Amino acid sequence: MYHRFVAGRVRQAFAEISAGNTEAMVSGMAPTFTYRFYGDHALSGERHTREALRRWWARCQRLLPETRFDVQDVLVAGWPWDTRVATAVTVDVGLADGTRYQNVVHQFLRMRWGKITEVRTLEDTAVLERTLDRLAAAGIEEAHAAPITDREPAAA
User: Fold this and answer.
1) Are 43 and 129 in contact (CB under 8 A)?
2) Which of 30, 108, 143, 154 is the most buried (most CB within 10 A)?
3) CA–CA separation, 123 vs 115, rounded Å?
């Protein structure tokens, strides 16, 4: 029953983010957390504060507006004091240049008492980097900006 509840919350969080409410995910973070997005691009990096995570989501919304997440699978293991979650999610975005960005995202989460303590996001970085390169070539400089971290402000 607990695993089903957690899976439902994860699916609901992706639905909220698809609707533009990124705060639904930010508010689910524990007081101490790590959020990693792997790669070497404008969306990669590691964050540990809600403020940095909000700036990162704002950048995501500027670069990939109206992103739609379709949750394919949610696997939950563990107990409330040490829960592990694995997701497989497809991403679909209509871009300003008329093309579409489509990718598959795998996230691995750790939770403690209903709050997320760790997120590791793995996405096909070659597909993402080609999309960011196209956006930069179209004049969207932020597509090639340095990653947002706790110490660095977002380049607008």
Assistant:
1) no
2) 143
3) 23
